[in-house]
Amino acid sequence: MNFEQEIREIIEYYAAQRNPKEQENIIAMLREIQETEGCIPLAAQELAAEKLGVKRSVFTCIMKRLPDLKEEIYSHQLVLCTGERCQNKKSMEILKAVKEELKIDKDGFSPDRKIYLKTQNCMKQCRTSPNMKADGELYAAVTKEQVLALLKKWK
Ligand code: FES
């Protein structure tokens, strides 16, 4: 999985704390990852385990105890850019089409919870707008047709 910079930064921040292995620190990190990703992906747990120097099973135990923390539940993640430049290139139209096609709920999930959709306000790739990331991979100058074709493969 190609990690988003945001997740790496969160993990690195918590790994740099004085006592990175402390439970309070780990819980705060997991919560922040979840706020960004909608859940706590396996790949994020693996990276965090490595950086914090703990076993991944530590996270599993904590997540079992705190039911508001949710382990990865989706298979694919789609991030659509809704920054101004991408909006000028009809990114909102793509977003609407994806939401309709996948019947995305208010939390960003498809009904089977296999696909998670979120938006980002500028991916800093404005020259190639509209932009999208699918499972961490950037799709530049993407069209509605390309996105819908990709979704068909995922279904
Ligand atoms: S507005 Fe979409 S990449 Fe900048």
UniProtKB/TrEMBL annotation:
Protein keywords: Iron, Iron-sulfur, Metal-binding
Superkingdom in the source lineage: Bacteria
Gene Ontology terms for molecular function: iron-sulfur cluster binding; metal ion binding
Record keyword Iron-sulfur present: yes
One Pfam family in the UniProt entry: 2Fe-2S_thioredx
Chloroplast listed as a keyword: no
Protein name stated in the entry: Iron hydrogenase
Species the sequence originates in: Blautia argi
